[in-house]
C-alpha cells in the first residue's frame, strides 16, 4: 500500500481496476460472506453473490455521494446487499417452498429499515470489522516499535508515560507514534467508517 492522502474510496473512483479493487475485496468479502450466511445462502452460491455485490459497488461508485453523512457508505453497501439477496431468493422461487421464505423476506425488510435492531447490528459489525481489517493492512507500514507504542496507547488504553518508560523511548515518541498511525487509519477509513467509531475520535 503506497503512502497517499486519498481514501480507498477515492482511489477506487480514480482507478477501479487498480490494486484498490483487490483491497476492497480483501476488506469486504469476508464481511459480506458472513451476512450472506445469516440469510441462508450456501457456500456454493456465496462467492458469486460476494462478487456481484462488490462489482455493483465499483460500477456505481462514481454516482455515490457521501455528502458528509455518517455511515453513508455502509448504508449504501447494505442496500446493495439487500437487493442482491432479494434477487437471489426470487430467482430460486423460494416462496413455493414450505417455511423460511416469508421469514427471509421479513428479515430483509428489517435489515433495510435503518431504525431496526438488525440494521444497527449491521452498522456495529461493519465498523468493527472494517477497522480490524484496516489495522491488519496498515500495521506492516510502520516500524515495530511505532506500532507497539500505538497499540498499547490507542487500543489497550495504557498511559503514554507508562508506555514510554517501559519501552525506553521518549514520551514524545509515543505520542507521535499514536498520531502517525491514527492519521493513516483516518485516511484509509474516510467515507467508510464513522469518525466517531472507537479510538478514531482520539487525538
**Mean pLDDT across residues:** 83
Q: How many strands, what sense, and barrel or not for the largest sheet?
A: none
Oligomer: single chain
Distance between the termini: 24 Å
**How would you sum up the global shape?**
elongated
How many beta-strand runs? 0
Describe this structure in words.
The protein is mainly α. The protein has 2 domains: about 140 residues, Orthogonal Bundle (Rna Polymerase Sigma Factor, Chain: A); about 60 residues, no CATH class. Helix content is about 70%, strand content about 0%. The chain is built from 9 helices and no strands. Helix 1 packs across helix 2 and helix 8 crosses helix 9. The longest helix has 22 residues. It is elongated. It starts with 7 loop residues before the first helix and ends in a 14-residue tail after the last helix. The N terminus is likely disordered.
Which key features would you list for this structure?
203 residues; mainly alpha; 2 domains; elongated; disordered N terminus
Short description:
This protein has helices at 8-14, 19-38, 43-60, 72-91, 101-112, 117-138, 144-155, 160-167, 171-189. The chain has nine helices and no strands.
Amino acid at each position: 500500500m503506497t503512502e497517499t492522502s486519498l481514501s480507498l474510496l477515492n482511489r477506487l473512483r480514480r482507478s477501479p481496476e487498480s490494486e484498490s479493487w483487490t483491497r476492497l475485496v480483501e476488506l469486504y468479502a469476508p464481511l459480506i460472506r458472513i451476512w450472506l450466511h445469516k440469510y441462508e445462502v450456501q457456500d456454493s452460491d456465496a462467492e458469486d453473490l460476494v462478487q456481484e455485490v462488490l462489482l455493483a459497488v465499483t460500477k456505481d461508485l462514481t454516482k455515490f455521494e457521501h455528502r458528509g453523512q455518517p455511515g453513508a457508505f455502509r448504508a449504501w453497501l447494505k442496500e446493495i446487499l439487500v437487493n442482491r439477496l432479494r434477487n437471489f431468493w426470487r430467482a430460486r422461487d423460494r416462496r413455493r417452498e414450505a417455511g423460511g421464505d416469508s421469514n427471509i423476506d421479513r428479515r430483509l425488510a428489517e435489515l433495510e429499515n435503518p431504525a431496526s435492531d438488525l440494521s444497527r447490528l449491521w452498522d456495529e459489525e461493519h465498523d468493527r470489522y472494517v477497522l480490524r481489517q484496516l489495522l491488519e493492512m496498515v500495521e506492516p507500514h510502520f516500524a515495530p516499535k511505532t506500532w507497539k507504542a500505538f497499540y498499547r496507547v490507542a487500543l489497550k488504553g495504557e498511559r503514554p508515560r507508562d508506555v514510554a518508560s517501559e519501552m525506553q523511548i521518549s514520551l514524545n515518541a509515543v505520542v507521535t507514534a499514536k498520531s502517525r498511525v491514527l492519521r493513516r487509519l483516518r485516511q484509509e477509513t474516510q467515507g467508510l467508517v464513522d469518525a466517531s467509531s472507537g479510538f478514531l475520535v482520539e487525538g
